[in-house]
Amino acid sequence: IILNLLETPILAFILAYVIRYIADPNSNVYIFYENENIPIYLFMALIVALFIGLTVSAEEIFRDRKILKREAFLNLSRSSYLFSKITLLLLLSAIQTATFVIIANSILGIRGMYFDYWLVLFTTSVCANLLGLNISATFNSAITIYIVIPLLMIPMMVLSGAMFSFDKLNRSVGSFNRVPLIAEFMITKWGYEALVVHQFKDNDFQKTFYNIDKVINNANYKITYYIDELEKRTTDLVDLLPQKNDPEIQKKIADRLAVIRKAIINETSFEAPSVTFDKFDRLSLNTIDEPTVYAIFDYLDRLKNHYSDIYNTQSQKRERMISYLVSNNRELYEAKRRAYHNESL
Asked: What is the pTM of this model?
């Protein structure tokens, strides 16, 4: 137990010390904002929690097999034995992850998020504890157990989303527009997302701007990509309608209409109800015609203008917020940005 308790602070110190990067070669002042290694640290912290959680539990049941036989002979409760093991492992994991977070976050200058980091790493370690107990109960050889651990860890590392982009995996595993199903079962994927998102949006600097940035980025996405894609599909309808009687062309028309109809319903119902469209009943293979197609173009133009207004209004609001903060105390604004925000996230 003493070795297990000493292992995490040592790993925390080594990891944080090595990646405590100072960007300016002429300075000895560490600035959290400029440390490009923070995303790597978030990933490695999860791997440490996973590895330690597995190693401390992987031999627990295997090591007690003789005791378990004797207890079974005496009709003693197996659930009580398992409960005691799990309780001890949870306590050990809580202490290990707490010492890791306190030491590593302090060295790297991650302020005010100790509990949040601890909660994610503790959850990861608990998952690893339970997985390790299952391994320990399944195999009857210590060698086999320690061979299985890397076989479990490597897929969790690869499918975490930190090492490789999901849209650049083998096509049989993933695709360019969605997370692979198998990755949804990886604790590392959820843990990494939780740490990255929380560190980015809830730090003391960014949380002032997050909500307005979200609106700006959503409007920019709609203007730059989303509406352009809908316009391309509407343009396809113009080219396809003259050949509407061809069965193959009908499939293409139906496909494009399905996308356009779904998008318009979403916009008029939730995203932009103030921009109306009154020809829903014409958005079907049997009723679509040229005037309806041009009505779609008109709707998309009005929708783009709507999001352009939002983008411009919110961008100006953000600039006014920054101007106000800078005019009040520029040094405080810059100090807070460098201390809490990280440009690599």
From this structure: 0.87
